[in-house]
Specification:
The complex is a heterodimer.
Chain A (H helix, E strand, L loop, with lengths): L23 E4 L1 E5 L6 E3 H6 L14 H8 L6 E3 L3 E3 L8 H12 L5 E8 L2 E8 L10 H16 L4 E7 L7 H20 L4 E9 L1 H4 L8 E4 L10 H8 L10 H6 L5 E2 L2 H14 L8
Parallel strand pairs in A: 7-8, 8-9, 9-10, 10-11
Antiparallel strand pairs in A: 1-2, 2-3, 4-6, 6-7
Helix pairs in contact in A: 4-5
Chain B lengths: L4 H9 L6 H8 L1 E5 L12 E8 L2 E8 L5 H6 L7 H16 L4 E7 L6 H5 L2 H12 L6 E10 H5 L6 E5 L3 E3 L3 H8 L6 H8 L3 H6 L5 E3 L7 H19 L4 H10 L6 E3 L3
Helix pairs in contact in B: 4-6, 8-9
Classes of the chains: A alpha/beta, B alpha/beta.
The complex binds zinc ion.
Chain lengths: 287, 265
Amino acid sequence: MALMNFLKPKNQLEEGGRTSAPVLRDTGEPEQNCPNCHKDIPLSRLLANHMVCPCGHHFRMKARQRILMITDRSSFREMYASVKADNPLDFPGYTEKVETIRTASSENEAVVCGTAAIDGRKCAIFAMEASFMMGSMGSAVGEKITSLFEYAAEYRLPVIGFTVSGGARMQEGLLSLMQMAKTSAAVKRHSDAGLLYVAVLTDPTTGGVTASFAMEADIILAEPGATVGFAGARVIEQTTKSALPDGFQKSEFVLAHGFIDSIVPRSGQRNCLSEILKMHEGGQSDE
Amino acid sequence: MSDPAYKRVRLARDKDRPTGLDYIRHIFDGFMELHGDRRYGDDPAIVGGIARLGELPVTVIAIEKGHTAKERTFRNFGAPNPEGYRKALRLMKQAEKFGRPVICFIDTSGAYCGIGAEERGQGQAIAENLMEMSALRVPVISVLIGEGGSGGALALAVADRVWMLQNAVYSVISPEGCASILWKDAAKAEKAAESLRLTAEDAQRFGIIERILPEKDLGRPEFYAAIRTLLSEEINELNHDPERTEHRYERFRRIGVSAVTKESL
Ligand SMILES: [Zn+2]
């Protein structure tokens, strides 16, 4: 019943906007205010607990932190690390924006890809990075994810993917829209080869990523309280001129409507993924 | 190219433009509409069925906006719900079973943004179409006839050939939406329309469409006759390509590759 905590306080997680990152406060030791229980939690304590508040609220987590949390020590080998988006449309301000974010986030793009092992079982893995333009998918993200699925199909590896995304990156226009088709086609080929893909949807997974590879996995897991949907809540309110139901687009809501397999808190993710990989060992394909 | 991009947006949205059903009625013979997604409902925003293109049986799918106020309301202004995309996929799979080519006409501001649409998995429905269309074994041609609004349009456009009417637009987001997100000002839609490169010429330049259909005779018999001829020729060509599905994969695979830099490590 612990999961109900995320539904009960009426959309408290949404207060201040659904993409609000808690503010760092300088009170001697850095603290973060939890949008669920409203307590100030020392950052060191959060970090030691994979960015989960004692009340159960899951804060955002860096892509590389996630990979470390899930995979065997020193097993991660990064791939396509140098892939970066250009400014193919000469979109006003895009080059400068991306440069600033690259410096601030120490990432080249909004997804980290590679291979790793979980309890000794090798897999391909990707984790999207919320701090990089809200995990938006442009040509570089599409290229990296497509390449990873192609690599995994060639070397017969399962894929584990953590999604977090506001959707397509509008500064790359149609080229970013097309990444939805490109990644989906690569997922399809990997799937048709009899290989496993497990997606873990984290807060928020929306727009073009929901409408492509996030929803195409064999097994779709989600973190508690994560926003998972296609259209933005505000757009829906404006379009329909009606109030949204409690817990709308939260992972618990999406589970109840039949679109994800299970909600797995961070503390259980490694074991869960390990079990899933184990159950799919040797049973792949007819080749 | 001298037209400002936002003028194209206005033309693409013009209520007097031919809609999906106009194309179906004038290009094909013996159209028989097939309803429903066999899951939940029948979405009037997407019309589909079987018809003959000349002598050739084909599956035709069109997003329909309607002309009159009453029709437009009934068609939900061409904003499909998940059932529409699922109906389209059902008909495409049926086409694959019987070896029929698939022809789609696209005209939507986007997939419907509604509570029910989310509850019934709008994102999942679009995702499934993208995935399944990429591997469909029959020829697929998609024609953007008006608005090509983001994922809601792409969900019918993972095709061997994608064509656009001269004044159709194809965009990842509406210029108004883009302007309000980036510049907090929907009035900057004209600037956004320029920046988004959403015209047919832009789409062709980026390798996203193969052909631009002129609008000189828009809505006249010779306009539809020209499209009929082009579709027949193209399907004939696609039918003679045994590597068709592979080529469709490559068609999408290469998009965006030149828009990224891979530094050697
Ligand atoms: Zn808390």
